Each structure stands twice: as C-alpha cells, then as structure tokens.
Amino acid sequence: MLKRQNPSTPEHRRDLAADGGALSMSHNDSRSFFSLSQLVLSAGRIKPSPALKHSKITYFEVEIVDVQSKKQICIVDKVPPASTLLDVKHKFHKACPQWYPSRVGLQLEHNGPFLKDSVSIQSLAVSSIVTLYFTDLGQQVGWTTFFLTEYTGPLLIYLLFYVRLSTIYDQVESRKSFRHPVVHLACFCHCLHYIRHLLETLFVHKFSEGHTPLKNMIKGCAFYWGFTSWIAYYINHPRYTPPSFGHKQVSYAALAFLEIEPVFQVQPTTPSRGSSCWYPVPTIHMRYMTFFCLYAKGWVLD
Predict the structure, then answer these.
(1) Lowest mean pLDDT among 7-21, 93-107, 112-126, 284-298
(2) Which pTM was predicted?
(3) CB atoms inside a 10 Å sphere around CB 114
(4) How far apart are CA 296 and CA 293, in angstroms?
(5) Which of 266 and 91 is assigned the larger pLDDT?
(6) Exposure b/e, 133-158, CB count within 10 A at least 16 = b
(7) CA distance 106 to 74
(8) Is residue 168 within 8 Å of residue 233, measured between CB atoms?
(9) Separation CA 248–CA 272 (nearest Å)
(10) Is 266 left (phi over 0), alpha (psi -120 to 50) or beta?
(11) Which positions ≥6 away from 61 have C-beta within 8 Å?
C-alpha cells in the first residue's frame, strides 16, 4: 500500500517552497520584459547614428618655369585652393631665398601680363598642376622710400649751395659779395616746397604695399637732384645780381608761388607688376611754379 505523504513533513515543505520561488521568478521576468517593451515603444523608432563625413581637400602643385630658358626652377607643392599668388611667392622665396616676393613677376602665359598678388590659385587652375612663368623684376623699393629719397635730396642740395661751400664757390668772392634779400627768399620758398612734400608723404598720402624698380627711383632722383643743383648754383653764386625789375618782380612771383604751391593732387598709377597703387603727382599748375620762381630769382650773372 502506498503511504500518504504528510503535508507537514519537511520534504513537502521544501517542494512547496521551490514551486513558489519558481512562480515568483517567472512573474518578475514577465514584469521586466513588459517594462522594457513599453520603454522601447515609447522611445519610437531607433535612428541609426550618422556616418562621419571626411572632407577631402584638394591641393595644387605650382610649377614655376623661367620665362626665358623655359627651365623648371622649382615646384611649390601642397598649395590650398584658397591661397593667393602672394602666398605662392612667399613659399617660392623659402625655396629660393634670392628671389624675395616683391622681385618676383609671375605670368600664366609666356607673353602674358603679370598676375596680381590677390589672384587665387583656384581661379588659375585647370588641373591639379599650375604652370607659372617667372620673371625677375630687378631690385625693388617701396613707394614711401621712393618719394622720401626723391624729396630729401633737393632740400639738402640747395642748402649746401646756400651756405656757399669752399669746394663750390671762391671764398674770397663769397666774403666780399653781399647777399640780396631775394636770395634768402628763394631759399625759404624752395625749402618750404620740399618740406611740405616730405610731410605729405609721411602723414597725408596713403601708399599701397606695392614696389617699384630701383631704376625708376634713380631716374627721378637724377632729375630732381640735378635740376636743384643747376638752379641753386646760379641763385647762390657770389656774382648773383637781383631781378631787373626789383621788388615789384619779386612780389608778383612770391604771390604766384603762394597761389600755386598748395595745388597738388593724387593720381593712380599701375606699376610693372600690375597691382594698382596711388601716389602724388604734380598738376599742370605746379609746372608753372618753376617758371615764376625763376622769374623772381633773376638768373643774372655779371
């Protein structure tokens, strides 16, 4: 006969506890899964993470060729599209230190015009390799240096003749001769004229960062300095005689000088490199000023 198990026995209690624990665990798992499913549904559709875009920059290579021999001088590599021609000149100067940027003239064609420094490389490129023709523009000077040198020379040269150096005039005649007041007036007007030009160059006129060949400055200085030496020699000569019409001639010429002297304008110019800049040039009225000054100064030697 089978013996009925007593519910109060320890084995029976252990079985009941195991069945109850399994039921409670399955119930907890159901609740956890239900909560997770509600959370996923409330969050909506899961969006995939965007893929990272890698920007690819295209660099150019600039081949610099001599315009005469057509031989390659160097290649400037890794030039960004946004770079200008001035940036290429600076990199070219690092590769060839003897060619500083203001001395370098670059052309897109063999007989074409010089390109401006502000031109971008991307606008010139047809492919990844850009070929430019190099021309040596010669020794360059800045516009401020150009005009300061051109105007300082006449000022100092005239004063050397005014003090009558022994290397220029005979000292015996210089001591005996009497200086007419118009000689002092001429020195005052001449110095005032060039001092005003120097002050305008320093504080009034605004020049670009362009340059001009050194030979242009030599030509300008030869004209200004030579003409000043010519008129200063005769005006400050010990044998100088006053104007033939006396004070009346001097007064009219002084009024003309004061009337014409302030007339000065600024006009644009285009240097050989092609970059436009501005610098002062005399008007037609300034050219007549020389005539009136010479009219007042006499130009008569015994």
Answers:
(1) 284-298
(2) 0.61
(3) 19
(4) 5
(5) 91
(6) bbbebeebbbbebbbebbbbbbbebb
(7) 13
(8) yes
(9) 48
(10) beta
(11) 75, 76, 77, 78, 79, 128, 129, 130
